[in-house]
Structure formats: C-alpha cells, structure tokens
Amino acid sequence: MKHYPAEIATKTFERKMMGYDPDDVRDFLNVIAAQMEALLQERNAYQKALKDKELALLEYKDRDQVLKATITSASQMSEKMRGDAEREAKLIINDAQQKAELITRDAKDSLKKVYQEVADLKRSRMQFEANLKAMAQAHLSLLEQGESFMPKMRFTDLEMK
C-alpha cells in the first residue's frame, strides 16, 4: 500500500501509556522507508535512462553533423569533378579540332600537290607532243628535201634492172 505525502503528514498513531505505540511507529516507518527506497531506485533508473537518452541524442547529433559534412564534402567533390570533366572535355575537343584542322590543311596541301603534278604532267605532255610534231615535221621536211635531190623511182624501173 502506497502512502502519499498528505497521508504521511496527517498520520496518527494509537496512544499507549507512555506515548505512541512503538510497534505502530516502527511498522509505519518501515513501510515509508521501503517506499522511499523504491522511489529512489525508480528515480535513479529514470535518471540513468535520461542520461542514456541524452548520450544517444548527442550521438545522433554527431552522426547528423558527420552526415551533413559528408554530404557537403561529396557535393563539393562532385562539383569539382564535374568542373574538371568539363575542362578536360573542352581540352579534348580543342585538341580534336586542332588535329582536324591539321588533317584538313594537310589534305588540302596534298590535293594542291596532286593538282600541280597533274598540271606539270599536262605541260610535259604538251611539250612532248610539240617536240614530237616538230621532229615529225623535220623528218617530213628532210624526206621532201631528199626527194628533190633524188629522183623518184618507179616500180617498173626496179623490175628492169
């Protein structure tokens, strides 16, 4: 049976010849002492539970801070990696464009060389044809001159001889 503060304050004991009944007082004090002990143990248990909860709360707050720091760090790292990737991509694109320009320039130079070689070959051909015609005309001219010095022979003239 629990005793409440108002009951304790108003408790009366039976009177005996020389005051209160010592057995009643001792019994009452034992009950109150047991209740006080139980209350103290309960209070200590609550205080321990409160400390445990406070420690757990601090641990959760620390974890929360670590998680926030990790997220911030990961976000910054992600931004840095994205920036680095964009810079690298720009460098690769610029390098590819320079190589493409170099290849295009080389191809144009090669094409110019081919056109120049074709033009040189045409010029050589025209010179060769001109030289050949000149030589052929020189030979025809020599043949004509040779006929004027030598009389023409007829087939019939050859049979007679």
Model description:
The chain has 161 residues and is an all-alpha fold. The chain has one domain (5-150). It is built from three helices and two strands; from the N terminus they run H-E-E-H-H. The chain has helices at 5-10, 22-149, 155-160, and strands at residues 15-16, 19-20. A two-stranded antiparallel sheet has the order 1-2. A hairpin with a 2-residue loop joins strand 1 (15-16) and strand 2.
Report a brief summary of the structure.
The protein has helices at about 5-10, 20-150, 155-160, and strands spanning about 15, 20. It is built from three helices and two strands; from the N terminus they run αββαα.
Identify the overall geometry.
Answer: rod-shaped
Q: What fraction of the residues are assigned to beta strands by DSSP?
A: under 5%
Distance between the termini: 177 Å
Class per helix and strand makeup: mainly alpha
Q: Look at the structure and give the mean pLDDT.
A: 88
Lateral arrangement of strands in the main beta sheet: 1-2
Q: How many H/I helical runs? A: 3
Q: Would you identify the regions where 5 or more consecutive residues have pLDDT less than 50? A: none
SSE order in H/E notation?
HEEHH
User: How large, in whole angstroms, is the Cα Rg?
Assistant: 63 Å
Number of domains: 1
Give the tally of β-strands: 2
The percentage helix is over 70%
How is the biggest beta sheet arranged? 2 strands, antiparallel
